[in-house]
Design brief:
Elements: E1 60-64, E2 75-77, E3 93-103, E4 111-119, E5 129-137, E6 140-150, E7 159-166, E8 179-191, E9 198-200, E10 203-209
Antiparallel strand pairs: 1-10, 2-9, 3-8, 4-7, 4-10, 5-6, 5-8
């Protein structure tokens, strides 16, 4: 689970903050489950286990997620060494979400970008692998990189990854200039043997400004 918050400075009479959560619907093989493979029979009306709250009227957004009703399991294959259909080759960069944002004139150019996903492999089809999640702006990698290792015999355990970037003045960052910019969340699966490790099509990339 992840949560981020930004509290403005200055005179503040009232601040109401609410955080809600529910169980991720794990699978089951029950024949009497009419809604599909669910442990707790939850069907998400807005799609696959995703939530986005926008707290201001500035530059903000969220990219990713399947909007189909009750789409608990909507997976995207991100690597293969066996030529699985509709699955990119392992050890290559795969874009999970992208968006074009416009920085208006006079804006500080300071935005916070956050990418999150989970990697799901299978045993024994998928061998040892290193998975990396990152963010690019205008084709250039920026910010932190999330890294997870999956190895035999525990590939079937899902692993979470997160990456972030603050476009502020710093040794390895800078404010965005006025104009259009392309932001991407990408993943790379480094392995010598993979059938179809996948990530869920949930809310993958969010961003908001500090103006």
């Amino acid at each position: 689970m992840y949560a981020h918050s930004l509290y403005p400075l200055g005179n503040l009479d009232t601040l109401n903050v609410k955080f809600g959560a529910t169980e991720l619907a794990f699978g089951s093989d029950r024949a009497d489950d009419p809604s599909g493979a669910h442990e707790n029979n939850v069907c998400y009306k807005v799609g696959s286990a995703k939530l986005l709250s926008v707290l201001n009227d500035g530059l903000s957004g969220g990219i990713g997620g399947n909007s189909t009703f009750c789409s608990t399991y909507t997976w995207k294959c991100v690597a293969t060494t066996t030529g699985e259909p509709n699955c990119p080759s392992a050890n290559t960069e795969v874009t999970l979400a992208s968006d074009t944002i416009t920085i208006p004139a006079g804006h500080s150019g300071v935005l916070f970008f956050s990418a999150k996903t989970r990697i799901q492999a299978g045993a024994p089809e998928d061998d040892d692998m290193v998975v990396k999640l990152g963010i690019k702006i205008d084709g250039v990698p920026v910010g932190s990189v999330g890294v997870q290792q999956l190895y035999t015999p525990y590939e079937a355990s899902s692993r979470s990854l997160t990456a972030s970037y603050l476009s502020a003045v710093g040794d390895h960052s800078s404010p965005l200039t006025a104009g259009q910019h392309t932001v991407e969340a990408y993943i790379i699966v480094e392995t010598t043997g993979a059938k179809h490790p996948s990530v869920p099509e949930e809310l993958t990339l969010t961003y908001f400004d500090f103006d």
